[in-house]
Each structure stands twice: as C-alpha cells, then as structure tokens.
Specification:
single chain, alpha+beta, about 160 residues, globular, 5 strands, five-stranded mixed beta sheet, Aminopeptidase, about 25% strand
Length: about 160
C-alpha cells in the first residue's frame, strides 16, 4: 500500500469532518459533533489559525487525519495537544496511524515543544496498546475535566 502523509489544505476539510463524525460514532457519541465545515475551515485557515492538520492519503483518498494545536505548560513550556488521530476502520492496522503519529512527533520537534499530549478513552484498549507501543505514557491516574458551553453558562450564572 502506498500512502502520503501531508499537511491538510482547505479542500480536505469536508473529508476531515467526515472522519471526525466517524470517530464520534466509534466513540458512541454520533450526535455530538457540532462544528461545521465553515467553522473548521475558518479555525484552521483564517487570519489566526487555531490548529494544524495532517492527512493520510491512500490512492488519492484521505483515509486518516491528525489535528494538533499549541498549548503552554506551566511546568514544561511550549507543548502541543493532539486533539484527534483518526484512521478509517478499513485502514486500521496498515501503518497509517503510525505514520500520522510520526508526523505529529516530527512536527512537535520542528516547533520545539517539550511535550505532546492527548486523551484516549479508557475502554479503547486497541488505541491504548498502540500508543503504549510507541512509547507514550498513558496516565491512568488523571481524569479529564471539562466545562461545556452549558456548564460555563451555569457556572457564570451561579457566581
């Protein structure tokens, strides 16, 4: 199988959005994707891009993606967050995920970051094993904390 890992361009974003929706379904959250194609394009290709995206192309079709964005660690300094690394179901086990992760790590080194971080669902053992096999530390003693839009509104109204 021949594949190319490259920077995503605006015209890839409709396929990237399809992959995001595929991931949401896999994660048992099929109705949770709220971002629109227009928002995705503006956020990545507007005046101040908020993320960088890579795609894995097989025979001219995007079959995987990885989306990262900058963060800052008070302990480490500049870091990047890997929001999603997605490979289509049919292409899992072909090396695309490894190639995408390698490109993300190369990008992190190019950016001079001190760490790359991401989350993985605790029931997604294949992904956990994949990341651990690449040398990642899956920190099972940390919990993800979030305030969604409704939660932010409730918080602000209550204070």
């Amino acid at each position: 199988m021949k594949y190319i890992i490259r920077d995503a361009v605006k015209t890839d974003m409709s396929r990237v959005l399809e992959l995001i929706q595929e991931l949401a379904s896999f994660e048992k959250e099929p109705n949770s994707v709220e971002v629109t194609l227009e928002e995705l394009i503006e956020a990545g290709y507007g005046e101040k891009p908020l993320y960088h995206c890579f795609v894995a192309e097989v025979d001219g079709k995007v079959e995987g993606m990885a989306l990262v964005y900058p963060r800052y660690s008070t302990w480490r300094g500049p870091v990047i967050h890997l929001e999603d690394l997605i490979v289509t179901q049919d292409m899992r086990g072909t090396g695309l995920g490894s190639a995408l992760l390698k490109r993300v790590v190369q990008y992190g080194k190019e950016q001079g970051v001190k760490r790359i971080g991401w989350e993985v669902l605790d029931w997604n053992e294949p992904a956990i094993k994949f990341y651990e096999s690449k040398g990642a530390n899956v920190m099972r003693d940390w919990d993800v904390v979030q305030l969604d839009e409704e939660g932010m509104n409730r918080f602000l109204e209550s204070t």
